[in-house]
Amino acid sequence: MTAVLFDFSGTLFRIESTESWLRAVLEEAGRDLPEPELKEAARALEAAGALPGGVEPVRVPEELAGVWARRDESAELHRAAYTGMSRRVPLPDPDLHDALYARLMSPAAWTPYPDARQVLRALHERGIGVAVVSNIGWDPRPVFRAHGLDPFVDAYVLSYEHGVQKPDPRLFSVACAALGADPRRTLMVGDSREADGGAAALGCRVHFVDHLPAADRPNALLPVLDLVPGLASDPA
């Protein structure tokens, strides 16, 4: 393998819990909700799938189905899809829905998986090209910079910047081209068999990790080093 592509959410980083997300926005807005109401609103937001990088919605309403299916193709579609889901849940101020969407772009809302730095640094130090390939509607580069991982990433290939989303092979092709890498010698690492598995159509090898809270997945990325010659014995 001469290059490795990584998904962002659920692979290298994990979004905060829905309850933490709502608490942070309420605190910033200076709004209080009784604890039972806050917890119930958080449960409803989670069921609605309003938090990108969180759980999938229990149901996508018919009026949002078209936008939802294409949500990662542009910033406008992404915002419309997720604020549309959020607005299904009553909150004490309608402006809180926009504040929730803004919060997801804050580095404070994201935690790198415990082994992300070790793996990215090892790849970088051995000259292995690294790209982040993400279905997303906003720029995660500030998240990588704030957490000190940006120096280990050579390219970002983001669906909303190209108008195409995984599993479309074109997005993976752009990433390989950005790294000057042969897809047949490239590894794709992600948490979605449907989306990230699309890299196999180009001939990429694909390695999957589980979409879990960061504390529950301390070392799932380390096997990536076993798949790249000369990296398996690198120290932490």
From TrEMBL:
Record's PANTHER family? HALOACID DEHALOGENASE-LIKE HYDROLASE (HAD) SUPERFAMILY PROTEIN, PTHR46649
Protein name per the record: Putative hydrolase of the HAD superfamily
Q: Name one Pfam family in it.
A: Hydrolase
Native source organism of the sequence: Streptomyces murinus
Source organism's superkingdom? Bacteria
User: What NCBIfam families does this protein map onto?
Assistant: HAD-SF-IA-v1, HAD-SF-IA-v3
Listed GO MF terms: hydrolase activity
Which keywords describe this protein according to UniProt?
Hydrolase
InterPro entries listed in its UniProt record: HAD-like_sf (IPR036412), HAD-SF_hydro_IA (IPR006439), HAD_sf (IPR023214)
Q: Does the keyword Zinc apply?
A: no
